[in-house]
Amino acid sequence: MAPPTIICIGMAGSGKTTFMQRLNSHLHTKKNVPYVINLDPAVLNVPFGCNIDIRDSIKYKKVMENYNLGPNGAIVTSLNLFSTKIDQVIGLVEKKKDKVDYCIIDTPGQIECFIWSASGSIITEALASTFPTVIAYIIDTPRCSSPTTFISNMLYACSILYKTKLPMIVVFNKTDVRDAEFAKEWMTDFESFQEALKSNAELNDETSNGSGYMGSLVNSMSLMLEEFYSTLDVVSCSAYTGAGFDDFMKAVDNKVDEYNEFYLKERERIIEQKKEAEAKKKEKNLTHLMKDLGLKTKKEKKSDSDDVDVLSDLSSEEEEEDDGYEDGLVEPDDEEPEREYTFPEDRNGEINANTNC
Ligand SMILES: Nc1nc2c(ncn2[C@@H]2O[C@H](COP(=O)(O)OP(=O)(O)OP(=O)(O)O)[C@@H](O)[C@H]2O)c(=O)[nH]1
Question: Which domain of life is it from (predicted)?
Fold first, then answer.
């Protein structure tokens, strides 16, 4: 069976790499061996053993130098270069499918470099069409204790969900510093979020009494996000202490079932749609080409043959047959006639071993 794939995505410093390290050791202790992939080309040290590391095939600093790029451009370019090898990556994971239980993937902290780049879509789509794939969105809990940063984080999660179209688990990390109960409550109880909003001095000025621009904006966004929350699995854990990882694995199994039930059908539908669109595009291009060359398409020929024949049609058909032309192509002769040289001196033009040039 294809191993479920977990793609860890999160803002810079949210603790993805530490989370990956803890997840790797947690799975090893449970005797569920994971296949580990690092897709962050700019990381200096990876604190876990990787089966595939992007840094082995692409040197991030060389990319910066050779293409004269800044740090983010170099990450995108490295991913672009790596995405050309994604079929090999998938082949390697597939080879190990009987030995590994999960495939876990670390991504660059600059989310936009991965999620909004063509290579990021190629990589996630290639993985998702081969393995049941789940997104783990890692959030730095202490950093989202204010309603505005919380909503910003949730909007980001929402955009990732709509971009990847894959089941998502929201992971509130660093719970050893701050418990994530407040965030879970905000996600389930709209009134408690309203209260937090009112008491947030940052959003309210004394005169407006909570009806300021930012206050009402966050308010309406939180209403819109209620629908989005219902599609998520929320887990709180600490990559530092290892708390909450059993819950995370339960959520993964739950999302894998969901993937097989809903997302797989949706993916198949999308692939089918893409194929149809591509076939249509090809046919359109071919028609244009035929028109440019002054040739008739099969459809046109058929409709012509349904029409009454006129003498001029007949003669042109005959001419075509006589010329040995069909659909504008020259049929090669079975036997090429021996070449004759009109003038023997023409032979001097040929390059042979005896000539000096
Ligand atoms: N207290 C606490 N600190 C954590 C936890 N997880 C990560 N950290 C710390 O958070 C900081 C960032 O962690 P990383 O794992 O490097 O974060 P990252 O998201 O991989 O960072 P980039 O790869 O740069 O995007 C480090 O100092 C970690 O020690 C946690 O569960 N609890």
Answer: Eukaryota
344 with 350: CB under 8 angstroms? no
Q: Is the pTM of this model over 0.90?
A: no
How many percent of the chain have pLDDT more than 70?
A: 78
Residue 335 pLDDT class (50, 70, 90 cuts): low
- Of 84-88, 115-119, 297-301, 339-343, give the lowest mean pLDDT range: 339-343
Q: Is the CB of 176 under 6 A from ligand 1?
A: yes
* Shortest-distance atom of ligand 1 to CA 40: 23
Q: Is the CB of 17 under 6 A from ligand 1?
A: yes
CA distances from 130 to 96, 104, 260 (A): 14, 14, 12
ipTM of predicted complex = 0.95
Residue 104 forms beta bridges with which residues?
A: 6, 36
Bridge partners for 135 per DSSP: 7, 168
Both structure tokens of 301? 């020929």
Centre a 10 Å sphere on the Cβ of residue 297 and count the other Cβ atoms it contains: 14
How confident is the model over 45-49, as a mean pLDDT? 89
The kind and range of the H/E element at 235 are strand 233-236
With 0-12 / 13-18 / 19 or more C-beta atoms within 10 angstroms meaning exposed / middle / buried, residue 89 is buried
> What spacing in Å lies between the alpha carbon of 12 and ligand 1's midpoint?
9
